[in-house]
């Protein structure tokens, strides 16, 4: 009995020590992750920018359920007009009005939240905005476009960072979450996205919290948005970037092919099956970045209709041909060839096989990895 009590006491002491040692680490990890409330801002901002009202409605409901107040969401949607324009912002606000009506009709009572307090009366919007912009940037923002177009410099400082950022019913870190998410949903904003990584950090978001944005975008918004954010963040934080540029295809992706005809991951979806009347077979083939077929031969003709992304086609003994959406490749019978995605982009094409009953394949060796990596 004494031995058993002694063992139990030792186990209890060991458990206490383990909990004491691990608890600070657990608390630190939790502090470095975005809360559910913060995460909810990300899809709200991204879907507003994309004009995707259906998914925005879902994100707004989830945001309210995760602790965002009505006034906080209104402020996020208002904040976004500076980055996405009045039309998208107003559409988002209209969508939110509909969501609130539906919830009210269901008897759901959402927290209103606080109103913004008046801006300081001892300084102008320009003075306030200059202070806020300088603090978030880490340095005074001058030169370049600011000198070339002084009006935009004034509007950025006085209106965006003064009148908008100066409103205190959401935090600066919430505003930067919305801004980074919005910019990730826009094409061609890499420069602004890079700048706002610094702004977000100075607003109080950790590097890990900023990286969380990529995860939320990928899970809740889309691969393209996650790709844009990941690419800029990887460069800024000097991390290896290995994510291939995703595509948006009009045809279904289908299932991952299990046949030993490919290097990497490839999806195949049969669209048209040949029969005695329609003597033609058509499939949508989608290649993950870096994926491709083995060298192979068809006894008949094959036609590739490229629909999205960037890829390669090569005939044996010939230089590889770069492919993109809109390109057409006619492959004659008996030609040894391969085709697939580029190393940096996903790729899809329609594969058209005339006379499928007589048009047979012969699969050969895999494409040499070193030769493939030299393709630029």
Spell out the key features of this protein.
two-stranded antiparallel ribbon, 8-stranded antiparallel β-sheet, 376 residues, Jelly Rolls, 2 domains, disordered N terminus, alpha+beta, AhpD-like
Please give the structural blueprint.
Elements: H1 2-31, H2 36-50, H3 53-65, H4 70-79, H5 81-84, H6 86-105, H7 125-137, H8 145-148, H9 150-164, H10 172-184, H11 190-202, H12 207-221, H13 223-236, E1 255-256, E2 262-263, E3 266-272, E4 280-287, E5 292-293, E6 296-298, E7 302-315, E8 321-324, E9 328-331, E10 337-341, E11 347-354, E12 361-363, H14 369-373
Antiparallel strand pairs: 1-3, 2-5, 3-4, 4-11, 6-12, 7-8, 7-9, 7-10, 7-11
Summarize the structure.
This is Carboxymuconolactone decarboxylase. The chain is of the alpha+beta class and 376 residues long. It is 49% helix and 16% strand.
């Amino acid at each position: 009995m004494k031995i058993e009590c002694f063992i139990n006491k030792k186990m209890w002491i060991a458990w206490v020590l383990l909990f004491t040692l691990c608890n600070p680490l657990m608390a630190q990890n939790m502090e470095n992750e975005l809360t559910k409330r913060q995460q909810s801002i990300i899809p709200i901002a991204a879907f507003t920018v994309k004009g995707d009202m259906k998914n925005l409605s879902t994100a707004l409901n989830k945001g309210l359920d995760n602790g965002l107040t009505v006034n906080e969401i209104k402020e996020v949607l208002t904040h976004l007009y500076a980055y996405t324009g009045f039309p998208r912002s107003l559409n988002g606000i209209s969508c939110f009005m509909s969501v609130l009506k539906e919830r009210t009709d269901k008897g759901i009572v959402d927290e209103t939240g606080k109103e913004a307090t008046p801006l300081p009366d001892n300084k102008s919007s320009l003075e306030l905005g200059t202070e806020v912009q300088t603090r978030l940037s880490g340095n005074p923002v001058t030169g370049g476009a600011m000198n070339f177009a002084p009006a935009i410099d004034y509007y950025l400082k006085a209106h965006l960072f003064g009148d908008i950022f100066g409103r205190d019913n959401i935090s600066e870190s919430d505003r930067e979450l919305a801004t980074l998410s919005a910019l990730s949903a826009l094409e061609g904003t890499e420069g602004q996205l890079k700048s706002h990584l610094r702004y977000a950090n100075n607003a109080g978001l950790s590097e890990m919290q900023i990286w969380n944005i990529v995860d939320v975008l990928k899970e809740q918004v889309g691969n393209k948005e996650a790709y844009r954010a990941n690419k800029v963040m990887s460069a800024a934080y000097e991390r290896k970037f290995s994510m291939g540029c995703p595509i948006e295809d009009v045809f279904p992706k289908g299932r991952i092919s299990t046949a030993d005809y490919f290097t990497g991951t490839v999806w195949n979806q049969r669209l048209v099956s040949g029969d005695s009347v329609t003597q033609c077979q058509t499939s949508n083939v989608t290649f993950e970045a870096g994926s491709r077929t083995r060298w192979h031969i068809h006894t008949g003709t094959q036609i590739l209709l490229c629909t999205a992304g960037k890829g390669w086609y090569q005939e044996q003994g010939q230089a590889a041909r770069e492919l993109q959406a809109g390109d057409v490749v006619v492959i004659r019978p008996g030609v040894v060839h391969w085709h697939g995605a580029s190393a940096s982009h996903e790729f899809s094409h329609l594969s058209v096989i005339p006379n499928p009953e007589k048009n047979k394949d012969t699969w050969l060796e895999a494409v040499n990895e070193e030769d493939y990596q030299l393709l630029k």
